[in-house]
Amino acid sequence: MSGREERRVALVTGGGKGVGAGIVRVLAARGVRCCINCNSNPAMAEDTLRAVEAAGGEAFVHRADVSDLGQLQGMVDAIIERWGRLDILVNNAAMQPNLYIDEYDYDKLRRLWEINIGGYFHAARACLPHLRASGCGRIVNISSIHGKRPTGFDAGYAMTKGAIRMFTRELALELYSDGITVNAIDLGGCEIEFKTGRAPFRGHSPVECHNPAMRGFRMVKPEDVGELVWYLCSGGASSITGDGIRLDKGVVLI
Amino acid sequence: MKHTVVLTGEAMAEARDARAYLTEQGYRVETVPKNIRLWDEAALSAFAEPLAGDLLGVIHPAPQRILGGVEAVSEADWSRAADEGPMAAWCVTKVFCGLMAKNGGGSMIYLNSIHAEKPVGNGALFSMGCGAVQMLSREAAQDYGEFGVRTYFVQKGIAPTDPDSASPVSGVYCGVDLRYCERKYPEAGHLNALLAFLLTPGAAALSGSDLRADGGMTLYYIHRRKVEGRPYYERP
């Protein structure tokens, strides 16, 4: 581990649980100081913080709704006040209600849009001055294979992931001359504590709909995502930008 | 036989061309009035329901582009792009695909853009909306397919009628005419026949797919060749 790596600072939105917690654990284990953003479940974020500290890492929890511009800016200000720099933004906070097109109304879909893509967009904007100052800024947008392949159980969620695909590409072009890389991870099914949305597959259980060809596949773990984030944030990945890397153990190949 | 086609907007030149062409071909083309916000489900339903029994298909053009870098986006721009892009497309889909599903099926055509795949570096708001609608088309193909509703996502290229979108960081819009394989912009009405085909059941095998209709302009990786003495990166 180099001295430079020890000093880097990351903001992980939705870092208190699930995929985000796995990313925090991996980054912190490699010396990155992490702001663990949470909103709906601060208790789990405190658990993640304790795990990081027990492993010798450095982090703090900041509660903020990523769809609220003021709260986002306040979180970034808190990071700068504490550590004086910000090198890595991992956009991860999202929701997946699992509703069909006809089950959405304007308010539900707009709320989803504001969290799943608005949160990413506005967090990037709030962090940009500091990522530029870093000299090796990194943005990693956690997305989903739903952004490329339809699944038939949440069109709204898939729309936001399609938007993240293009946000990643646009931002990569915009920020390349600043030395900031922007990439997405198109995540497949991940083994997390619990999911927030309704169980997918209306009228069927997930088991009934499970593709028998998938037998034997192990689901991705949050730490697998963390390892890929760590690589994308490394100097060795400085030529990779605007990409969407599929992390699903090959499931969409079936 | 059903012969009503709904056009949800006419800001795009290709949409106006399609209206004229389809009318000439004997279709009844109904354009959603400008005073109806496409993300207003109640108002859109009130417009759509009288047409339901004769509804053959819907053509939903992408909204007008909002240009500018990520840091230049105002809250008003953000909100407008959300409403006119993904929210409008979702509402149009819910209302019209729902009606077509109850009436034996039909075609839902998203007349969109190559910017669902191709970034420009100063159009994130627009491109994000395109990416979202692309996924909506794929999901809607699954949600409504068993009821005879087919969806298509048409990615049109860049035309001289489009607003100037020069990007300070990308050459995507430079020498566009030379990027078309025929070395010229497409003629007006170039999408008419494609749209008419997609309204027919004969296109059913394409449901849920993307149809890139950009004359090959996005095939280029790095094109340094001079055509007619002019390198591609010089704007005409």
Explain this structure to me?
The complex is a heterodimer of chains A (254) and B (236). Chain A is of the alpha/beta class and 254 residues long. Helix content of chain A is 43%, strand content 15%. Chain A has a single domain (3-253), classed as Rossmann fold (3-Layer(aba) Sandwich), CATH 3.40.50.720. In chain A, strands 3-2-1-4-5-6-7 form a seven-stranded parallel β-sheet, with helices on both faces. In chain A, strand 5 (138-144), helix 6 and strand 6 (181-187) form a beta-alpha-beta unit. In chain A, helix 2 packs parallel to helix 3 (42-54), helix 2 packs across helix 8 (222-232) and helix 5 packs parallel to helix 6 (155-175). Classes of the chains: A alpha/beta (254), B alpha/beta (236). At the A-B interface, helix 5 and helix 6 of A face helix 3 and helix 4 of B.
Q: What's the arrangement of secondary structure elements?
A:
The complex is a heterodimer of chains A (254) and B (236).
Chain A: H1 3-7, E1 9-12, H2 18-29, E2 33-38, H3 42-54, E3 59-63, H4 69-83, E4 88-91, H5 106-134, E5 138-144, H6 155-175, E6 181-187, H7 206-209, H8 222-232, E7 244-247
Parallel strand pairs in A: 1-2, 1-4, 2-3, 4-5, 5-6, 6-7
Helix pairs in contact in A: 2-3, 2-8, 4-5, 5-6
Chain B: E1 4-7, H1 13-24, E2 28-31, H2 41-48, E3 55-61, H3 75-102, E4 106-113, H4 124-145, E5 149-156, H5 176-179, H6 192-198, E6 209-213, E7 226-227, E8 230-231
Parallel strand pairs in B: 1-2, 1-3, 3-4, 4-5, 5-6
Antiparallel strand pairs in B: 7-8
Helix pairs in contact in B: 2-3, 3-4
